[in-house]
Design brief:
This protein is about 25% helix and about 15% strand. The protein has about 140 residues and is an alpha/beta fold. The protein has one domain. The longest helix is centred in the last third of the chain and has 13 residues. This is F-box domain-containing protein.
Length: about 140
């Protein structure tokens, strides 16, 4: 962070190779008005609860084990894409339940969770919300 130039009006970022939570906190403190960001590594450590990271409008987390109840509780953006993360059924169900009931996460317009490692069971989640998979039309 000491070597990073101070650039005005940074709105879109992609952080590769940065995974220390303290460095990420400092980066978003330096550039707080992000519209969109992508984090392409597992975040090591804990972000501050009031981190500017959580305020990014559009967030993509790729290959992260960071998606926890804490992250979902603190995210204040509008669009969230989570790819290849360690995320369990209970965390997703609790998050969706609060979101669709209007109890919390009112700021979020869209969430996409993709996971080729399948730490969560989509069937359990669909049963919980009485829904089913969309069939593909050929």
């Amino acid at each position: 962070m000491k070597r990073l130039p101070l650039i005005e009006n940074v709105k879109y970022t992609c952080l590769y190779g940065v995974n220390d939570a303290e460095v990420i906190d400092k980066f978003f403190d330096t550039y707080p008005n992000q519209k969109s960001t992508r984090i392409a590594r597992t975040i090591e450590g804990n972000l501050k609860p009031d981190s500017k990271f959580y305020e990014v409008g559009e967030m993509e987390l790729d290959n992260s084990r960071f998606v926890t109840t804490t992250f979902l509780r603190n995210f204040k953006g509008h669009h969230l894409m989570i790819k290849n993360s360690k995320c369990y059924d209970s965390t997703i169900i609790r998050f969706i339940r609060k979101w669709i009931s209007g109890e919390d996460h009112l700021n979020i317009g869209a969430v996409l969770i993709l996971n080729k490692f399948m730490e969560f069971n989509t069937e359990n989640i669909m049963v919980e919300f009485e829904t089913m998979k969309l069939r593909r039309f050929l």
